[in-house]
Amino acid sequence: MTPCEKAAFICNKAQYGEATFIEKMKLQFHLLMCKTCSVFSKQNADLTSLCEKAKLQSLSEQEKIMMKEKLQNKG
Amino acid sequence: MAALKYTEKVENLKVITSNSITFDSNEKRMTANQLHPETWVDAYADYLFNFAVARVSDAEIAKDLVQDTFFAGLKSAKNYKGDAAERTWLIAILKRKVIDHYRKINSKKGKAEVRMSYSTSSDSEGDWLEERVADPFSTQENSVIENEELGLAIQSCISKLPKKQAQVFQMKTIQGISTEDICNELGINPSNLWVMIHRARTALMGCLNDNWY
Question: What is the pTM of this model?
Answer without folding.
Answer: 0.67
